[in-house]
Amino acid sequence: MRFIDQVTVYVRSGHGGAGSVAFRREKYVPKGGPAGGNGGQGGSVILQADKHLYTLLDLRYNPHQRAPRGEGGQGNNRAGKDGGDLVLRVPCGTIARVSDSGELLGEVVQHGDHLVLAKGGRGGKGNTFFKSATRQVPRYAQPGEPGEEKTIQLELKMLADVGLVGFPNAGKSTLVASVSAARPKIADYPFTTLAPSPGVVRVDEYESFVIADIPGIIEGASKGKGLGLRFLRHIERNAVLLFLIPVISDDIVSEFESLMRELHNYDPKLSQKRRFIALSKADLLPEEEHAYYLDQARRRFGSQENVFLISAVADFGLDTLKRELWKCVQEEQLQGES
């Protein structure tokens, strides 16, 4: 499935149905009086979050969305049928803006959240509504109100508990495939991954968190180079960041500082998120050097950083990393609830 995280859609809510002008015509009821029913409410266009969706692909190929109009009122005081609401299902974390003005309409974050993009027109009142002691035979009714028309810009900021940050070929996709059931494309050339790849990581039988590979970060990504600018926004919604740096890097500390600089330049708040550093591809080191290498790396990064040595290929250090990430995710969730 193609990953689409930005689409523009035209939405139009339904017009309200017109009220009816009618009169009672029973055989033995002379001058029966008004009997016109009200028109139906026009359908609204509603955005709804669905945890089973991960892309805006459906709306890319269906950019015109129109809700049905309300039916007109009828005689014998019969109200017109309301137009049904049109529900657009989108992934959790979708933001809606008015395309022309950039006005923020809102966002749907949790499964089931909904946002009205265009409200349906109100149905018109039939002539029965206008009956009174001084106006016993009204011969007019209200027309239905028109619906709303808008061009909406939808933008997805992926919701994941842990976001993987690293330069191309750091082993992010391999790690996601090793700790979850996700199967991102894996190859030995840069920019293999062209879209965020989420996966569910099982810690225990009833405990899990979502991890996502954020692709395309390079030097200068925050200035629009490469693919990074397009996908950096997905990191905003991650509770915890996991920096992945291969042990074969020329300078692991310098590479980490470069990644931190790109995040800070894009949004200074990103550099303040809880973070872990995983030194990947440990299988390329002799096993007897693992403890010494990790000890030296922790000294270089300093005590304020959480540093781990892992190998996704050899399944080395993954259980410890998963449990530490899960503890951190739980702490962030508790802080968010308080």
Q: What does this protein structure show overall?
A:
- 19% of the residues lie in helices and 24% in strands.
- The protein is an alpha/beta fold.
- It has a six-stranded mixed β-sheet, with helices on both faces. The protein has a five-stranded mixed β-sheet with strand order 3-1-8-5-6. A three-stranded mixed β-sheet has the order 4-2-7, with no helix packed on it.
- The longest helix is centred in the C-terminal third of the chain and has 20 residues, at 318-337.
- The two termini are 37 Å apart.
- Mean pLDDT is 84; it is low at 189-193.
Question: In brief, what are we looking at here?
Answer:
The protein is α/β, with parallel strands linked by helices and 338 residues long.
Bin the strand percentage. 15-25%
Strand order, sheet with most strands: 10-11-9-12-13-14
Please give the alpha-carbon distance between the first and last residues.
37 Å
State the helicity in percent bands.
10-25%
Summarize the biggest pleated sheet.
6 strands, mixed
- Structural class determined from secondary elements: alpha/beta
Number of strands: 14
Tell me the Rg in angstroms.
29 Å
Work out the helix count: 6
> Are there runs of 5+ residues with pLDDT below 50, and where?
189-193
SSE string, helices as H and strands as E: EEHEEEEEEEHEEHEHEHEH
The shape is: rod-shaped
Mean pLDDT, all residues: 84
